[in-house]
Fold:
Amino acid sequence: MSSNSFGKLFTVTTFGESHGPAIGCVIDGCPPGLPLAVEEFRDDLGRRATGKTRHTSQRREADEVEILSGVYEGKTTGTPIALLIRNTDQRSKDYGDIAQTFRPGHADYTYWQKYGIRDPRGGGRSSARETTMRVAAGVVAKKWLAERHGVRVRGYMAQIGEITPGSFDWGVVEQNPFFWPDAHEVSVLESYMDALRKSGDSVGARVNVVADGVPPGWGEPIYGKLDADIAAALMSINAVKGVEVGDGFEAVMQHGSQHRDEMAMDGFASNHAGGILGGISTGQAIVASMALKPTSSILIPGRSVNLAGEAVDVVTKGRHDPCVGIRATPIAEAMVALVLMDHALRHRAQCGDVGEVSPRIP
Ligand SMILES: Cc1cc2nc3c(=O)[nH]c(=O)nc-3n(C[C@H](O)[C@H](O)[C@H](O)COP(=O)(O)O)c2cc1C
Structure:
């Protein structure tokens, strides 16, 4: 009912608030025998972390994972895996003003209307601090998917404001703080972000995720469509306002003769569908994209109301991301990996005996 759990067979439940003592998750349904150590979480958590460059929030969390259960002698046991990360760099005094007012564009007003009480410190449960645990759970899913099926889930930044990459190289994506695929434009982005930060404003972004190696057959038709679950998973990330699979909204302007992905025994001629047809994977790369809105907590005054119903101007101090999309790439990857893991197990449960069916297009 309260929707803090996600997935059917590979189920992830997260808990915790931005400025509470800790955040955590329970992963239920992980197959036994998967080697798992705390060191394996560091890479992806580091990719998501704040305070690594001047272009993100300056909150500095250690993000050290503790494995509380579900792992024995370095391997998953099939029992619930509980992961905990203690918050170490809360600065709740910055949020004194927010407790009395509602930031326009944030979740303060809706949480208040729903629950009649809220934890305003750092945005409480509505803070993207929660996504740390999605990334942690995603590490487990990514590992199992890679080891069992050779699946690789990767993301990159496809747009910041009006800037789009002039060229594309996966090799560059992890070499800069923006997950940007064009090395020549990184300095342009740095100047852009510096000017934006000085202006006190924020900007939106687009992040793309590609999953290679997914075999045909994962996903379920009708109410369990793989594309619908990916869309819901990406849309559940804070600040996401749009999701596309394959050509997405571009399909509106296309003709059928152009959009359909023609087939031959040496492969599909194109991938407008984004690797999913009828809610089921085709065996091509799965391609999804999400639009993130500009950060609502900005230094430019905005009109709002306070708890007494009086008109106020809100200026949000504290440590905020001027472009939330900069840290969203590992989160998007994690959500796609969690959906794929869940569907891999669901496919194995119902159709594991079907095996490989001919003809199979490579
Ligand atoms: C990685 C990431 C970092 C974020 N950082 C901030 C932030 O510093 N300040 C802020 O106001 N919102 C931030 N957000 C967005 C808010 O969490 C989000 O806008 C808020 O919870 C309201 O939810 P909604 O935008 O999904 O409607 C961030 C989102 C993501 C994905």
